[in-house]
Amino acid sequence: MSQSTNMKATLAQCKAELLRTVRNRRFVIFSFIMPVVFYFIFTNTVGGNTQVGNVDWKSYYLMSMTVYGVVGASITSYAQRLSRERSQGWLSLLKITPLPSWSYVLSKVLSQAVINLAIIIVMFLVGGLFKGVDLSVSTWITCGLFIFIGGFSFMGLGTLIGSIKNADFVQVLSMICYMGLSILGGLWFPTDTMSSTMKTIAHLTPTYRLGQGAWDAVAGVSIDWGGVGILVAYVVVFLAISSYIMKKQEAV
Amino acid sequence: MSFAIELNNVSKIYQGKKAVDNLSLKVEKGTVIALLGPNGAGKTTTISMILGLKQPTSGTIKLLGGSPKDISVRNRIGAMLQEVSVIDNLKVAETIELFRNYYSNPLSLQELLRISGLEKEKDKMAASLSGGQQRRLGFALAASGDPEIIFLDEPTVGMDVTSRQMFWDTIRSMADKGRTVVLTTHYLEEADSLADRIVVINQGKVVADGSPSQIKAETTGRVISFTAGTSVTSEQLLALPGVIDVEWNGRRVKLQSRDTDRLIVTLIEQRIDMKDIEIQSGGLEDAFQAIVHSTN
Known about the structure:
Helix content of chain B: 25-40%
Shape of chain B: elongated
Number of helices of chain B: 11
Largest sheet of chain B: 6 strands, mixed
CATH topology of the largest domain in chain B: Rossmann fold
Oligomer: heterodimer
Radius of gyration of chain A: 19 Å
CATH class of the largest domain in chain B: Alpha Beta
Strand order of the largest sheet of chain B: 5-6-7-3-8-9
Number of domains of chain B: 2
Number of strands of chain B: 13
Order of helices and strands of chain A: HHEEHHHHHHHHH
Largest interface: A-B, 28 and 29 residues
Structural class of chain A: mainly alpha
Radius of gyration of chain B: 23 Å
C-alpha cells in the first residue's frame, strides 16, 4: 500500500470519528452543555470573592469544568463509539480491509485530540469572555496544555470501558465512572470542602490529578510530578487491562 | 496456474470438536463458487479462516498467493460477513465513502450506490436502514475496493425478491469482469443460478464438488419416463446397463439412471416399445438432501 493511501485512509477515519462524535447527543450534553451550565450556575451562586487556596473561584472552577468536559468526552462518547464498533462486528469488518491497525489507532488519538482541544478552547473562551477570568497568556497556555496532554490518559479508561461489548452495560458503567470520578476527584466541589478521608480518596483519583495540574498552574504553584506519576500509572493499568481483555475476546 | 484461493489440509478445532476437518480446496481465478451445507457445517468458519479472521488449527491457506493478513492482499479482496455491521451516527454515503478511502483503486461512490440499490437511501443514517438494506450496504462496502475476490456469506438473507434478483445480476456482472466470487448460501436456487462450481460441505468436510449439473447427476441421477408397450417387463429393463431403479405407474415407467444419455441410446438399440418419452434431471434440492443424508 502506498503512503498516500494510508494518509487518505487515516484522514477519512478521523473525519468519520469526528462526525460520529458531534452527532452523539450525550457528547454534546456532557462535554459542552453541562460544563458550561454548571460553570455559570456555580460561579453565580458562590460569592465573587470566594477563593480556593489563593485562587479566584471563577478561575479555579473554570479549570474544574474544563477537565470535566474533557473526561466526559473520553469516558462517555469515546468508550461508547468503541463498544459499538466491537459489538456490531465493525472491527471484524475492518480487519479485512487494507486499513492498517496503526492507522486505526492513530485516527482515534488524533480525533480525540481535536475534540479535547475544542472543549478546552470553548471553555476558556466562556470563562475569559463572559466571566472575566483574567490569567496571563502563559498561564492560559500551561493550563490548556496540561489538560490537553493529560486528557489522553482518559482515553485509556475509555478504551477499557469500550472493550465491553454490551452497549447498555457500557452506558451505565461509563456514567457511574464519569460521575463518580468527577465528584470524588473534586471537579464538582473542591477537595478543600471535603473531610480528610474523602480528601485522601480524592487524591488517588485520576480526575483530581488532571485537575491538579491546571489548578496549580492558576495558583502559580510548580507542577507536582508525583501527581503526574499517578496519572501515568493509571494509563498504564487501564491500557494493560483493556489489551488483555481484547486479546481474550479475539482468541476465540 | 496460480489460484485465487488455496487451502491445504486445513482443520479447525473448537473445544475438542472439529469444525473443519482436513479440508483442501483450490479455487481458480474467475470462478463463482458456492459453499453449500447445512447449519454448522463449517462454511462460515472456513470463510473466516480464508479471510484471516480465524487461525486454522493446522494446515495452510493462501489467498491470491499470499497471506490474508498482508495489507496488499486485503487491498484486492472484499467481504460481506454474516453478521450485519453498520456503524453508528454515519450516513449511508459517508460509510461507503469511508471504506472507499481504505483502498488504492476504489469504485466510485455513484457506482457503489447503484450496484447496491441504495441511491435513495444515501442520506439516511446507516443504523436506521432495514435489515435487507443493511445487507445491501454491506455489499457496497465489500465491493468498494473493486476487489478481485469477493466473499459473500449468506448475502441474500433478509432481502426481498426484487433485491435478490438485482443482487444476482450484480454478481453475474462481476463474474463477467473476471472477478472471483465466493458465496455461502442456504438458497439452493441461488447456488444453482449463480455458481459455476458448488462445493458441498458437511461436518467440516467436502462431500461433493463440481458444477451444478454434475452435483445433480452424481447424486440423484436422472430419470427417463415413457409409456411402455405390453411386451415390456421389469426384468428386461433392469437388465439394461445403467438402470438403477424401475418404477411402474400403470403402463407408465420411470427409469433412474446416472447416465440418461447412454441409456436412451441403449433403449432405442434394444427396440424397447416406448411412447411419450421424457428425460428429467433431479433438482439440486434433491441432490443436496441426498448428499447431506448420506454423509451424516
